[in-house]
Amino acid sequence: MWLPCGCTSKYVASSFARRTLASYLHVSGRSRCNVAAFMPEAAGLEGVSGRAALRELSVSNSESFWAAVARHRLCWSTPFHTVQDCDLSRGKIKWFEGGKLNVSVNCLDRHVHTCPERVALIWERDERGSEMKYTYGELLEMTCRLGNLLRRHGVKRGDCVTIYMPTCPLAVASMLACARIGAAHNVVFAGFSADALAERIRDGEMLLLIITVNQGVRGGKVTELKKTVDTAMQSCPTVKQVFVAMRTDNPVTMTARDIAMEEVREQKANQILEIQIQAVEDVVCEPAVMNSEDVLFLLYTSGSTGKPKGLVHTQAGYLLYAALTHRYVFSYHDGDVFGCVADIGWITGHSYVVYGPLANGATTVLFESTPIYPDPGRYWDMVERLKINQFYGAPTAIRLLLKYGDQWVNKYDRSTLKTLGSVGEPINTEAWEWYHRVVGDGRCPVVDTWWQTETGGICIAPRPSDPDAEIVPGMAMRPFFGINPVLMDTEGEVLTSNNTSGALCMAQPWPGMARTIHNNHQRFIDTYFQPYPGYFFTGDGAYRSEEGYYQITGRLDDVINVSGHRIGTAEIEDVVCPAVAESAVVGYTHSIKGQGVYAFVVLKKGIDVQEADLSRQLNGMVSEKIAKYASPDFIQFAKRLPKTRSGKIMRRVLRKVVESDLEGLGDLSTLDDPAAVQEIIQGHEKLLSKNRS
Ligand code: WTA
Known about the structure:
The structure is a single chain. By secondary structure, this protein is of the alpha/beta class. 32% of the residues lie in helices and 24% in strands. The chain is globular. This is Acetyl-coenzyme A synthetase. GO terms for molecular function: acetate-CoA ligase activity; AMP binding; ATP binding; propionate-CoA ligase activity. Residues 577-648 form the AMP-binding enzyme C-terminal domain.
């Protein structure tokens, strides 16, 4: 079906895709009114006279809007016949049915066809100043070789491949290779422990293959990723093969299960410069023809129970939404260098390092390092060196860098920057102002983008809006095209007035939203659609200002956000230690990380241990079972926890205690034994003063 295209005969692209591409370019060239100039995809929509009208139409007539955008922004091998078939009350979400396409063709072949020499990836390696560039042609070749390698080792359409790798070109090629041959991928953040990796592998069915690297390198430190995979494998008997790529030059023990991924490498001064996937593989790899609603990937994220959920995203709707938000929220233009510093192990890495930018033919940066390695000027040195136009990062890093002072920023030329983005947690006004005034020299709009693994892409952000529309510090502000947010009161009624707060829900489906939880559609319904029937519940609270702008106020469930990494408090509580009778974990405000982890622990009767020793042991266990970032900052030992008469731990009370908000303790009359609260307060004060001294 996909035929070799004329100018680059070794690559493949569909003739249909080429036709669509031509019409895409044709429409781009048309400029009927300012809407068409701003959004060429919308040129054919009747009666839209300005951006506000376009936004309105995207909600009131969302089918026309999404149909027009999908036709023009994606290359289809068969056009879709139904724009959407959704019923939020049943958690049924389907977009663009009948349509067939291949995501890797959309991200690679069509750009290779028009500009094979354009740089697709800039790999900002941990070692400063050693960045490597890969053109679209090279990335397609890497993807095709890898796709063939996977196929030769038995990976079929509908299978699922786990990717446990740091952010690097081979990881991107692995994701795209899966997409090319119709397999789903399951990227597991390389900071997760062997246990967490094993849990995520076991939960998925048909997971037969893992791709990893010998070692990771981050902030000058080496991590033993292959060894972690070996440990995880002890409890994953279904995994038959592990592909191992070489990030460093240190050999690792290979077992019968392991397959070396590269054959030929160019080396210089002990650094591997050329990663080449088994040269025997052909550089042409026939793309699978996928249905719009086939699975593209699973991505595990934390919920309010101990078990992480594998959210499922599908092909067309996800790609379209990632591409459209990338283009319009950041005002990305052809030729820009897009620098999102997220790890590919999180949804931000999926949507704004890989799929959104590549679907738009952008040059995207793969950041392997940390904001302070080798010094706090790392980001801005990178901006100068790589001439980054859009920089997208997390508030936690901004807060950290702010403390090191302006000189680390001012040292570098940031004149290429046009837009600054923030994601993952609320950005406080001080950090926002610094980002805007110092990093952006007061001239770049700062977009505080609110979204989730579940939403697939940005849902609320200050842009797109009129170029001179106001941006309020620390507010996500405006819903994106097709997004219809509502606030709910405690009775489940929609709040219609402004200057009000409530539970943030979405009243309408959009193409980027997750389709289900892998192997557990009931949990999907219970979590997102049952709390407010007919609406998608985000789990966040929000405030709507007098002007109608949205500001996220934080999670309403037992999920906390540590340095922008989501973690369920129940996941930490589930780490079992024989000495512990029960525990309760809550988040508290942390000046750098946004939220820190505070654990209350009740020991079993008759246990005689030093608290300091047990704290160390518990911290070690959490790192080993989950990841380092989930390790408690504080562990308070208590005789008992405040509970309701039915035995439920009153986390609300614990949260108030750790925030030192004793005025806000509220009604304690439902407590089984109110004296428990006094003990908790005293214990907390003791722990704080011990920490201060
Ligand atoms: C939080 C990350 C305030 C929120 C893309 C959400 C934010 C959770 C913002 C999703 C923001 C994300 N302001 N809070 N701009 N962006 N959040 O799934 O609580 O890792 O529900 O996706 O992060 O985290 P996730």
